[in-house]
């Protein structure tokens, strides 16, 4: 019984948080995420952003202006200018988003990382919820 309880704890906790959120209207931390995706130039960034939106994998994609990047690639120090995408979506969509972006991104190993949203404007978080279809 103890082992089963320990194994079921994450599922039961998640269900309890979702129920609490539905009853109280409060936000469950980590329900949504921001993904960071670097692109070679503005046109690639726009193309990827539009493709993400067309697939309804995000509520919003911000395209940030050029930034300088220093990184090691194949043992050599590289320097480049990149465009950063900030993708606001459901945390449950991060895997699908990552797979899709890897399939269309020109980089051999594109940067696709995400962070969960802990808190924010409740109306904005609700808008993300309404804009990105459930799994």
UniProtKB/TrEMBL annotation:
Keywords: Signal
Entry keyword annotation includes RNA-binding: no
A family per Pfam: CutA1
GO molecular function, one term: copper ion binding
Signal sequence coordinates: 1-16
Family annotation (InterPro entries): Ion_tolerance_CutA, N-reg_PII-like_a/b, N-reg_PII/ATP_PRibTrfase_C
Key word Thylakoid present: no
Gene3D superfamilies: 3.30.70.120
GO annotation (BP), single: response to metal ion
Quaternary structure, from the entry: Homotrimer.
Assigned protein family: Belongs to the CutA family.
Protein name: CUTA protein
Protein encoded by which gene: Cuta
């Amino acid at each position: 019984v103890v082992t089963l309880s320990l194994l079921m704890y994450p599922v039961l906790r998640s269900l309890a948080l979702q129920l609490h959120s539905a009853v109280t209207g409060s936000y469950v931390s980590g329900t949504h995420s921001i993904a960071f995706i670097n692109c070679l130039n503005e046109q690639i960034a726009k193309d990827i952003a539009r493709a993400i939106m067309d697939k309804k994998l995000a509520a919003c994609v911000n395209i940030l202006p050029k930034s300088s990047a220093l990184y090691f690639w194949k043992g050599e120090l590289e320097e480049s200018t990149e465009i950063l995408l900030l993708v606001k979506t459901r945390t449950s969509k991060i895997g699908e988003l990552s797979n899709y972006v890897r399939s269309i991104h020109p980089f051999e190993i594109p940067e696709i990382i995400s962070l969960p949203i802990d808190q924010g404007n409740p109306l904005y978080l609700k808008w993300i919820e309404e804009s990105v279809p459930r799994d």
